[in-house]
Design brief:
This protein is of the alpha/beta class. Helix content is 40%, strand content 27%. The longest helix has 23 residues.
């Protein structure tokens, strides 16, 4: 079987990875279609990087099964490595080598044929915007340039699947946006992109998302589905002066489940939007807050993820209490 036969680039079922008694990846199952941008979202330490390393053939799973590009993750790791590109947040570049020398090094690692090597090198330099810096030491490049160079080195051999592990960590917002333009371009050519990030706004750029928390996949779907179908509570957006102070007032209302600063306003979680909106208007008006506006909105992905994580934690706590 290969990725082209069933349209799936990645298939995993009940994937597990233990380190001693610690379960880093806990029975994860998912599929990623060929040409899809799949986002793996979750807090640091949730198991994102461990899962990616298993899929790249770097780590062996301790349970479950899966295929990448049609090859078995447990028995065909070396074959997987020839069909994928991998880029970590550390960028895997040699700082004391020039831009060209880094590209030449990775050309050798990926066994790019001599006749293709020159063409691929020029493509990377053009894509990364490094024409003027091809002879510069990599150490002097900005974060955005290093990021694009690292992506170019990871896909020199034109793999059908690329794994990007926190690729935009530590780079400025403009570089992040430019990087996503490159991801879209690759996806439009049929390349499958499996990307991890903890930036919630980046999750919106993905075709589908999986939320991983404490080693478990607790939700997956398109951004639209996650925002409209998976959150039982309502979200109110509150704009007023002194939002940080207003937060303390709103938290006193019994029907409010949570309040968080969001941009220049507040996001309020409640099970009854209409009643909560009236209560918020009243308490803020009584305290002489100005410019009060309260409206029900579609939750952000961050709202959804916080809600799902809190629900998961409450369920586990109840289970522990019952088991005592």
């Amino acid at each position: 079987m290969n990725a082209g036969e069933n349209g799936k680039a990645v298939i995993i079922k009940d994937l597990e990875r233990r380190f001693g008694s610690f379960i880093a990846v806990n029975r994860i199952s998912l599929e990623v279609a060929k040409g899809e941008i799949f986002g793996f979202i979750g807090p640091n330490g949730a198991g994102k990087s461990t899962t990616i390393r298993i899929l790249c053939g770097i780590l062996t799973p301790t349970g479950g099964m899966g295929t990448v590009a049609g090859f078995d993750i447990s028995t065909e790791a070396e074959k997987i490595k020839t069909r994928i590109g991998y880029m970590s947040q550390k960028f895997s570049l040699y700082e004391d080598l020039t831009v060209e020398e880094n590209i030449d090094f990775y050309s050798g690692i990926y066994r790019v044929t001599p006749e293709r090597k020159k063409e691929r090198k020029e493509w990377v330099i053009e894509m990364a915007g490094l024409k003027e810096h091809r002879h510069s030491k990599t150490a002097v490049l900005s974060g955005g340039w290093k990021q694009r160079l690292a992506l170019g080195c990871a896909i020199l051999h034109e793999p059908p699947i690329i794994f990007l592990d926190e690729p935009t960590s530590g780079v400025d917002p403009i570089s992040r946006r430019q990087f996503w333009d490159l991801i879209y371009e690759l996806s439009s050519k049929g390349v499958t992109v499996f990307v991890t990030t903890h930036y919630m706004e980046e999750a919106e750029y993905c075709d589908r998302i999986g939320l991983i928390y404490r080693g478990e996949l607790i939700a997956s779907g398109t951004p639209g589905v996650l925002k409209t179908e998976l959150m039982p509570e309502d979200i109110l957006e509150v704009t007023c002066e002194r939002p940080q102070d207003a937060m303390g007032e709103i938290e006193k209302i019994p029907s409010i489940k949570g309040v968080a600063l969001f941009g220049k306003g507040l996001h309020v979680v409640t099970e009854d939007a209409e009643a909560a909106a009236d209560a918020i208007q009243n308490i803020l008006a009584e305290r002489d807050y100005q410019f009060i506006n309260v409206e029900k909105i579609v939750p952000s992905l961050e709202d959804v993820f916080v809600s799902l994580i809190e629900a998961r934690d409450r369920a586990k706590q109840r289970k522990q209490e019952v088991g005592r």
